[in-house]
């Protein structure tokens, strides 16, 4: 093998290796990110639809139970219910008892006045499932009953009765086993899909909800990327071959000149000595350049490997202002850093939305308890005072009602203290701790250093500070065996500080398996863009939390 061929093989092999590594790393990373994003989006869609379906069913059931109508709105010629079902109170799936197997959900309530049966308006659920925002061209959400027959209309078989479609896929089987999850597998059509699934249990009704989208549709960008990478790789490789052929002419010419000079010298003509020395210098420079090229390529390969492993803090300097490969690698690293930062921001935003949704639901439940159930109990108390003649029974009934009212107030305050919107976090924590002191022997000292009239603490921060304090006190009372607790909430111009101390048994933060309480605290601090410092030793456990002022 001559030197020209050898050089061609070495240079082009190195270039091909670098291109292959970069292409594979980029394709793999893009594929993983795409899979995660699709499954995350499907899970959000599925969770939203599940919550909407459960809410509608529970709301209609509550209205049904509260109504005093005892007529049955069912057609016994098309819906034949066994006595065992009629005697079972709750929400039921009647589909199997329908003559035409039409999807039917109903309510049954038995009382001394008789049996009431009502058919739920299934169009409400159908409207939720048919909402396909964010699901592409092939996405759909559907329900499957315990008998593995579909309970909602398939968008792919619009003329078929849902019950005629038998759906015993991996997702449905796992969901009925109590396993909620996600994955890529075949759906009821035998087509590979991205799927997320979970079990809906409302009353006596069990169904699986699935949100899916075809793999073929999702992977279109991957196929396009693959084609572009293949084309780019071939183009670069061909360009590299042409450049290497051109370069080998410059590399082999000095060697030929040296060979010519040596042949002349072998014939006894030493007048060519200067030319020989010149050629020797060029050969040395050629191999020095080759060594530099090899070192440069090794650096690029190592850097690309680090990027593939998401080690984005690795430093890399281009060999010169013309080092296009080095600049491309640095640009790729910067893009990946930007993407990871955006992903982290998205993750924190998702947690924030989840926590905000949870707090909104707690606020709604608190309002329902206070404004809904409370007046009914108060009316019941007045009724007892004015209508019940037996003083002993009246006293007993009033005590039960008063205890119930107190318990509902405690529940409402625990879900969402009304004072947090009206008076702020400082007053809310004061009231909460004063109430807590009545039911515990632990000494709790609280110092409120917030600005009462011109406070810059947002409602979002106030709610999270309240939940964090709740969790810390709960941990101290349940697990720490503490005798004394000190809490200080301070508000400064640029940040809010929460200091928490107890003299309990502490824990080793390096070895202890942190429970959901500590995790929840850290997540709430994170979504508020704050910092947390934990020191946990026997007799001196402290949490120092700082949240920035949001202007």
TrEMBL record:
It comes from Flavobacterium hydrocarbonoxydans. It is found in: Membrane. It comes from the Bacteria. InterPro entries: HAMP_dom, HATPase_C_sf, HATPase_dom, His_kinase_dom, Sensor_HK_TwoCompSys, Sig_transdc_His_kin_sub3_dim/P. The keyword RNA-binding does not apply. Pfam families: HATPase_c, HisKA_3. The chain crosses the membrane at residues 6-27, 229-251. Keywords: ATP-binding, Kinase, Membrane, Nucleotide-binding, Phosphoprotein, Transferase, Transmembrane, Transmembrane helix, Two-component regulatory system. One of its GO terms (molecular function) is protein dimerization activity. It catalyses: ATP + protein L-histidine = ADP + protein N-phospho-L-histidine. This is histidine kinase. One of its GO terms (cellular component) is membrane. Residues 249-302 form the HAMP domain. It is an enzyme of class 2 (transferase). Coiled coil: none annotated. Gene3D superfamilies: 1.20.5.1930, 6.10.340.10, Histidine kinase-like ATPase, C-terminal domain. Its EC number is 2.7.13.3. Residues 364-551 form the Histidine kinase domain.
């Amino acid at each position: 093998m001559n030197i020209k061929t050898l050089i061609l093989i070495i240079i082009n092999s190195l270039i091909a290796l670098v291109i292959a590594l970069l292409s594979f790393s980029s394709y793999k990373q893009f594929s993983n990110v795409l899979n995660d994003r699709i499954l995350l989006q499907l899970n959000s869609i599925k969770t939203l639809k599940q919550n909407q379906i459960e809410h509608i069913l529970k709301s209609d059931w509550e209205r049904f139970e509260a109504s005093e109508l005892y007529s049955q709105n069912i057609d016994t010629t098309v819906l034949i219910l066994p006595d065992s079902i009629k005697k079972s109170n709750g929400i039921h799936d009647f589909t199997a008892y329908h003559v035409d197997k039409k999807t039917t959900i109903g309510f049954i309530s038995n009382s001394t006045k008789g049996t009431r049966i009502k058919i739920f308006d299934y169009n409400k659920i159908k409207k939720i499932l048919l909402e396909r925002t964010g699901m592409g061209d092939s996405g759909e959400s559907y329900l499957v009953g315990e008998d593995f027959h579909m309970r909602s209309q398939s968008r792919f078989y619009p003329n078929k009765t849902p019950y005629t479609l038998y759906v015993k896929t991996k997702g449905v089987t796992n969901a009925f086993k109590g396993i909620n999850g996600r994955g890529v597998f075949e759906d009821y059509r035998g087509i590979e899909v991205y799927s997320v699934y979970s079990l809906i249990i409302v009353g006596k009704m069990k169904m699986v909800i699935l949100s899916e989208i075809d793999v073929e549709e999702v992977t279109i960008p991957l196929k396009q990327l693959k084609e572009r990478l293949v084309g780019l790789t071939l183009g670069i490789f061909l360009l590299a071959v042409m450049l290497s052929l051109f370069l080998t002419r410059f590399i082999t010419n000095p060697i030929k000149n040296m060979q010519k000079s040596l042949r002349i010298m072998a014939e006894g003509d030493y007048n060519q000595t200067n030319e020989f020395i010149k050629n020797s210098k060029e050969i040395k420079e050629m191999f020095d350049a080759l060594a530099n090229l090899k070192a440069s390529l090794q650096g690029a390969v190592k850097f690309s490997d680090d990027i593939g492993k998401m080690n984005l803090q690795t430093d890399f300097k281009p060999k010169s202002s013309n080092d296009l490969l080095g600049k491309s690698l640095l640009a790729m690293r910067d893009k990946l850093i930007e993407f990871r930062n955006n992903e982290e921001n998205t993750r924190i935003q998702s947690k924030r939305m989840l926590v905000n949704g949870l707090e909104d639901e707690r606020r709604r439940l608190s309002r329902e308890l206070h404004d809904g159930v409370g007046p009914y109990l108060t009316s019941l108390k007045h009724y007892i005072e004015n209508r019940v003649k037996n003083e002993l029974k009246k006293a007993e009934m009033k005590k039960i009602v008063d205890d119930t009212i107190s318990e509902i107030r405690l529940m409402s305050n625990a879900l969402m203290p009304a004072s947090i919107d009206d008076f702020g976090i400082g007053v809310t924590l004061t009231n909460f701790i004063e109430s807590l002191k009545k039911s515990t022997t632990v000494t709790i000292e609280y110092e409120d250093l917030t600005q009462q009239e011109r406070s810059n603490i947002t409602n979002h921060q106030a709610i999270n500070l309240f939940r964090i304090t709740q969790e810390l006190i709960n941990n101290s009372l349940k697990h720490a065996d503490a005798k004394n607790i000190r809490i200080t909430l301070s508000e400064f111009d640029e940040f809010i500080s929460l200091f928490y101390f107890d003299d309990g048994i502490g824990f080793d933060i390096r070895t202890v398996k942190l429970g959901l309480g500590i995790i929840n605290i850290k997540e709430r601090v994170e979504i508020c863009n704050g910092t947390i410092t934990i020191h946990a030793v026997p007799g001196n456990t402290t949490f120092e939390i700082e949240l920035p002022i949001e202007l």
